[in-house]
Design goal:
CATH topology: Alpha-Beta Plaits
Number of helices: 2
Number of domains: 1
Distance between the termini: 24 Å
Largest sheet: 5 strands, mixed
CATH architecture: 2-Layer Sandwich
Structural class: alpha+beta
CATH class: Alpha Beta
Shape: globular
Order of helices and strands: EHEEHEE
Radius of gyration: 12 Å
Number of strands: 5
Protein backbone atom coordinates (compact mmCIF):
# COMPACT_ATOMS: atom_id res chain seq x y z
CA UNK A 1 0.00 0.00 0.00
CA UNK A 2 1.25 3.51 -0.83
CA UNK A 3 -0.14 7.02 -0.33
CA UNK A 4 0.83 10.57 -1.17
CA UNK A 5 0.20 13.25 1.47
CA UNK A 6 0.06 17.02 1.22
CA UNK A 7 0.23 18.66 4.65
CA UNK A 8 -0.84 22.29 5.02
CA UNK A 9 -0.50 24.61 8.00
CA UNK A 10 2.45 25.71 10.09
CA UNK A 11 4.62 22.82 8.97
CA UNK A 12 7.90 24.42 7.88
CA UNK A 13 10.54 25.70 10.28
CA UNK A 14 9.10 23.59 13.11
CA UNK A 15 10.86 20.25 12.58
CA UNK A 16 7.95 18.65 10.77
CA UNK A 17 9.99 17.13 7.94
CA UNK A 18 12.66 15.66 10.25
CA UNK A 19 10.03 14.35 12.66
CA UNK A 20 8.09 12.80 9.76
CA UNK A 21 11.26 11.04 8.62
CA UNK A 22 11.87 9.69 12.15
CA UNK A 23 8.29 8.42 12.40
CA UNK A 24 8.36 6.84 8.94
CA UNK A 25 11.63 5.04 9.63
CA UNK A 26 10.36 3.80 13.01
CA UNK A 27 7.31 2.38 11.23
CA UNK A 28 9.55 0.80 8.56
CA UNK A 29 7.94 2.80 5.80
CA UNK A 30 9.63 3.50 2.48
CA UNK A 31 9.24 6.75 0.57
CA UNK A 32 10.19 10.40 0.90
CA UNK A 33 9.26 13.74 2.45
CA UNK A 34 10.01 17.32 1.33
CA UNK A 35 9.09 20.94 1.86
CA UNK A 36 7.20 22.74 -0.91
CA UNK A 37 7.84 26.34 -1.93
CA UNK A 38 4.19 27.13 -1.09
CA UNK A 39 4.88 26.40 2.62
CA UNK A 40 3.34 22.93 2.67
CA UNK A 41 5.05 19.57 3.16
CA UNK A 42 4.47 16.59 0.90
CA UNK A 43 5.35 12.95 1.34
CA UNK A 44 4.87 9.58 -0.27
CA UNK A 45 5.01 6.48 1.90
CA UNK A 46 4.77 2.76 1.24
CA UNK A 47 4.26 0.01 3.79
CA UNK A 48 1.77 -2.12 5.64
CA UNK A 49 -1.78 -0.80 6.03
CA UNK A 50 -1.29 -0.52 9.82
CA UNK A 51 1.92 1.51 9.43
CA UNK A 52 0.25 3.74 6.85
CA UNK A 53 -2.62 4.42 9.26
CA UNK A 54 -0.13 5.27 12.03
CA UNK A 55 1.87 7.74 9.91
CA UNK A 56 -1.36 9.31 8.70
CA UNK A 57 -2.57 9.81 12.28
CA UNK A 58 0.83 11.29 13.17
CA UNK A 59 0.81 13.57 10.07
CA UNK A 60 -2.50 15.07 11.21
CA UNK A 61 -0.88 16.02 14.56
CA UNK A 62 2.74 16.66 13.62
CA UNK A 63 5.47 17.60 16.09
CA UNK A 64 4.63 19.89 19.05
CA UNK A 65 5.52 23.21 17.35
CA UNK A 66 3.48 22.52 14.21
CA UNK A 67 -0.12 23.47 13.52
CA UNK A 68 -1.56 21.13 10.90
CA UNK A 69 -4.64 22.54 9.18
CA UNK A 70 -5.22 19.93 6.50
CA UNK A 71 -3.83 16.64 5.22
CA UNK A 72 -4.83 15.56 1.72
CA UNK A 73 -4.31 11.87 0.99
CA UNK A 74 -4.16 10.19 -2.41
CA UNK A 75 -3.50 6.50 -3.01
CA UNK A 76 -0.61 5.84 -5.39
CA UNK A 77 0.81 2.80 -7.16
CA UNK A 78 3.18 0.86 -4.86
CA UNK A 79 5.63 0.45 -7.73
CA UNK A 80 6.29 4.23 -7.73
CA UNK A 81 7.94 4.05 -4.29
CA UNK A 82 11.31 2.39 -3.75
CA UNK A 83 10.83 -0.38 -1.24
CA UNK A 84 13.99 -0.17 0.89
CA UNK A 85 14.61 3.49 1.63
CA UNK A 86 13.18 6.65 3.07
CA UNK A 87 14.60 9.99 1.89
CA UNK A 88 14.34 13.68 2.66
CA UNK A 89 14.20 15.40 -0.72
CA UNK A 90 15.07 18.94 -1.70
CA UNK A 91 12.37 21.59 -1.63
CA UNK A 92 10.24 21.69 -4.74
Amino acid sequence: MAIHLCIVGRVQGVGYRASFETQARALRLAGWVRNRVDGSVEATVRGSPDAIEEILAWARRGPPASQVREVTVTEVDDALVEIDRFDVLATK
